């Protein structure tokens, strides 16, 4: 029996086998290259190269079958024991969200939240249940990274607030609804 092929951006948001969230990795931890999934071609493309001294602090990707205010799938920073390659699909649980607004030049501000999740097979990070469980100074470091990364791309980014897993889940559900409404 033939199976239909799904593109990475249209995988189920919730993994049917584990019940955990599905995350697609675009950019591995430690990378100075920013990769972006191209749904029309089903490939991961090189999107940008970060300056020296700037690298992704953790694996970065998206939740499939979601849509944010910017029109893209919802972004997620994944805490995992070691980096995985672009295109890898992992399961995870939410620990919070960095609610942010972003704008380009004269365009209006748009929400472009950064979700935080822990890979479910991770051993080193299993104790993380909430943003408050992160080591001191990690959230300000991550905020600094995203602010500077946005600035290098001609965008402004401002943090609205930090929220825990309950709020993150509500925002994720809104992203799933937005995706279904725009199909």
Automatic annotation (TrEMBL):
<keyword id="KW-0460">Magnesium</keyword>
<dbReference type="Pfam" id="PF00719">
    <property type="entry name" value="Pyrophosphatase"/>
</dbReference>
<dbReference type="GO" id="GO:0005737">
    <property type="term" value="C:cytoplasm"/>
</dbReference>
<protein>
    <recommendedName>
        <fullName>inorganic diphosphatase</fullName>
        <ecNumber>3.6.1.1</ecNumber>
    </recommendedName>
</protein>
<keyword id="KW-0378">Hydrolase</keyword>
<dbReference type="GO" id="GO:0000287">
    <property type="term" value="F:magnesium ion binding"/>
</dbReference>
<dbReference type="InterPro" id="IPR036649">
    <property type="entry name" value="Pyrophosphatase_sf"/>
</dbReference>
<dbReference type="GO" id="GO:0004427">
    <property type="term" value="F:inorganic diphosphate phosphatase activity"/>
</dbReference>
<keyword id="KW-0479">Metal-binding</keyword>
<dbReference type="GO" id="GO:0006796">
    <property type="term" value="P:phosphate-containing compound metabolic process"/>
</dbReference>
<dbReference type="InterPro" id="IPR008162">
    <property type="entry name" value="Pyrophosphatase"/>
</dbReference>
């Amino acid at each position: 029996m033939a199976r239909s092929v799904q593109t990475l951006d249209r995988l189920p948001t919730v993994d049917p086998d584990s019940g955990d969230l599905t995350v697609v990795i675009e950019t591995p931890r430690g990378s100075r290259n920013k990769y972006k999934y191209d749904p029309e071609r089903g490939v991961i493309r090189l999107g940008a190269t970060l300056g020296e001294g700037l690298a992704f602090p953790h694996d970065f990707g998206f939740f499939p079958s979601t849509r944010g205010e910017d029109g893209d799938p919802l972004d997620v920073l994944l805490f995992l024991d070691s980096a995985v390659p672009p295109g890898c699909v992992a399961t995870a649980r939410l620990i919070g969200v960095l609610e942010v607004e972003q704008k380009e030049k004269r365009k209006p501000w748009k929400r472009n939240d950064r979700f935080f999740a822990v890979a479910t097979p991770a051993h080193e990070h299993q104790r993380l249940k909430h943003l408050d469980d992160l080591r001191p100074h990690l959230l300000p470091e991550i905020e600094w990274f995203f602010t500077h990364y946005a600035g290098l791309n001609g965008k402004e980014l401002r943090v609205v607030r930090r929220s825990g897993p309950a709020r993150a889940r509500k925002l994720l559900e809104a992203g799933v609804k937005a995706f279904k409404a725009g199909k």
